[in-house]
Amino acid sequence: MTPPPGRQGGAPPAGAPAAGAPPTQPQAGAPPRPPAPPAGAAAPSTVPGSAAATPPPNRAQYAAPTVAPAFRAAPTTTTPLPPPPRPPQRDLTPLAIGAGVVAGAVIGATIADYRNQRRESVEGGRTVYTEPDRIIIRDPGGQTYVRGNDLYRFRYGARDIRTETVGADTRTVVIRPDGSEIITVVGQDGRLLRRIRRDPAGRELVIIDNSYRDPQSVGGFYVDAPPPVVNMPYDRYIVDAQEASPDVIYETMVAPPVQRINRRYTLDEIRYSPNVRMQMPSIDLNTINFETGSWTIPPDQAAKLQSIADGLNRAIQANPRVVFLIEGHTDAVGNDVDNLSLSDRRAQSAAELLTQQFGVPSENLTSQGYGEQYLKEQTQGPSAINRRVTVRNITPLLNGGQASLPPPPPGTAPPR
Length: 416
Prior knowledge:
The structure is a single chain. Helix content is 17%, strand content 20%. The chain is α+β, with helices and mostly antiparallel strands. The protein has a single domain (51-399), classed as CATH 3.30.1330.60. It has a 5-stranded antiparallel β-sheet, with no helix packed on it. A hairpin with a 4-residue loop joins strand 5 and strand 6 (135-138). The longest helix is centred in the last third of the chain and has 23 residues, at 336-358. The protein is globular. The protein starts with 65 loop residues before the first strand and ends in a 17-residue tail after the last helix.
């Protein structure tokens, strides 16, 4: 394919062969890929005919991603998703910046290392692939989800970390050198319930209150919503980080939803419901060049996150309660379970680097990998447009538009 304007050259970033190389064959022992969907018109993630759905042909990088066929319907199994592996205490110890660990693993690790450690089981009709620090769940309907634990990101630069169990919940308190604390409360099912920042004077700021669950949601993680109607220019709904000015990047990070938000969504509903997530404008960055199968961002690539970091820091300074989702996407080369795990690690790696190198507060970020589920260019081969990191503000979704968060319920105050 012809690279879009301003994107000549460069190694393919997302674990795929170089452009023009034949697709790789599935690795021995890799889980089988689900059958390809029948030919036909792809389902866009925005309503056809809206301005954002139809960029001109020479602006393919602005195309709204296509929702994979399996994700156009509710999952078959509606029980809550199983929790990810709980980090052992030795992995929740403070780490100095630059300690040689990225995305929960030693620098230099590759997806092949985790493929060899992957265990497959069947739980409640779902196929579950368990890695040391992540879990991948395949629904009988074809939907595949990855769940990890973002507490790993909070170790860097911490003075101390303590974990305690209160009832069925686990509370992790990260103490920073200045005496401030980040308190994360996780339920028995692995679901983040609350994230709080406490300053050295004891004043608390609730950043995420995820305790609410709407009875209409499926298993607490999926919402069957129609595609959003987008009435804004295509290049302001999906912003190309390489071409956009710093002001446009910032304005996108603080932009309102494209349509009215009628209720609060949980973090898992946002992560796993594409049409909920796509109510918010986003910024795409697809120029980071990863080594094949790796999620380590090389030093010469880190500077490409500068404009994203500047916008994030500016937005967080304006609203300390804002929350951004860092998404990882791959092309369709390789097997889908590897791609899902790899994209999740790359999203976490990008979030870690934003904190370590650019000072973006880790508590205002969360990350999620989507593998090849949301392709912008409809090809099963290598695609630089499909290999991307996406950033979007999810605060209005968590808060139900402009609604204020309620106070914590009685008895749920974080430990002092």
